[in-house]
Known about the structure:
Blueprint: H1 12-37, H2 39-49, H3 52-63, H4 68-81, H5 92-109, H6 126-137, H7 159-163, H8 165-174, H9 176-195
Domain Helitron helicase-like: 4-199
InterPro entries: Helitron_helicase-like (IPR025476)
Protein name: Helitron helicase-like domain-containing protein
Amino acid sequence: MHYWDGRFVRSVTFTTKLFDQMQRYSAVQKAARVGVTHGKTIEKFGQIINTSRFKQAFANAKSNPDSKEDFWLNARLFRLLSLVGGSVPLSPFERAATRLKLGAMRYRYGIALHWVTIAPPEYGDLLLHRIAVLQRQRVWNDPDCVYVHSGCWFENLPANIRYDARARLAVSAQYPALSAQVFERRLKMLTNDIIRCPNSGATRVSTTYLGSGCGVYDRCAAFNAVIEL
């Protein structure tokens, strides 16, 4: 980014604000363009996600992310969601795809400044809702409670949490300190597994989604993060 006035060149806040506004403006423009040119597709997508069959398939995929049905559903959703924006690289499948994209950026532009916009969905984190349920029911030391054990899945949560996004957001707002810790954990997972993961010779040809050591950057001079409140 270039400025006509040198007084703002060293202002990190001003630079971040400009980038955030430009990114928001481009996202709104793209969403409006997609809504006009792919109106029928967006309408069909809205009808599909409100069916009971899709909700059941989505719940099964979340409880068993390594199944063939999950990859099938993931691929179908990506074809629709790619019209407006990309996905959040948190699953093993998305981590592998993101490594290749960031590696291509580094290969083309060299070691430079890269802006990566992420939005870790801490409001849907399983640990957050497990602790919230334990806090409400006061069953921390109950060995028969499913929320105490590590084998607790998303499908074990109450129905209003599983199927209502507003209820999950309400839990996140009710426990801000816990949500902040979950957000930090997700952010560390993203940076350690994708951006700052050690490089290897098989980075460009890696197709093992659960493989470790397939990083993106060979050398990293600095790493900065800006959290939008």
